[in-house]
């Protein structure tokens, strides 16, 4: 049996979202890019929880703060660059 590792699946998920975010940015839809970055966080956490048998801990609720992630920072930088141009 040749099962894929969690890391491989997370890498594929990340690549898929990066591609979608890049397409949204290319289409100047930064709101969609931001939503996709947030959705990636949710999907990645869900994938990890399912694979680790910890779905009882979902959904994760963060009080009052938006987690800063690499994808969200990229979208924010692109948004700032587009506004400045």
The helix-strand sequence is HHH
The percent of residues in helical segments reads 55-70%
**Low-confidence segments, ≥5 residues, pLDDT <50?**
none
Q: Tell me the total number of β-strands.
A: 0
Helix tally equals 3
Mean pLDDT across all amino acids: 83
Q: Which structural class do the helices and strands define?
A: mainly alpha
Biggest sheet record: none
Shape: elongated
Q: What fraction strand?
A: under 5%
Number of domains: 1
**CA radius of gyration:** 15 Å
User: Alpha-carbon distance between the termini?
Assistant: 52 Å
Attribute tags:
elongated; mainly alpha; 85 residues
Please write out the topology.
Elements: H1 6-26, H2 30-52, H3 70-84
Helix pairs in contact: 1-2, 2-3
């Amino acid at each position: 049996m040749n099962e894929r590792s969690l890391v491989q699946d997370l890498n594929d998920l990340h690549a898929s979202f990066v591609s979608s975010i890049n397409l949204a940015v290319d289409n100047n839809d930064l709101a969609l890019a931001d939503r996709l970055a947030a959705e990636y966080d949710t999907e990645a956490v869900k994938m990890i929880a399912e694979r680790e048998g910890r779905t009882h801990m979902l959904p994760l609720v963060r009080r009052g703060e938006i987690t800063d992630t690499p994808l969200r920072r990229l979208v924010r930088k692109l948004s700032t660059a587009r506004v400045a141009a």
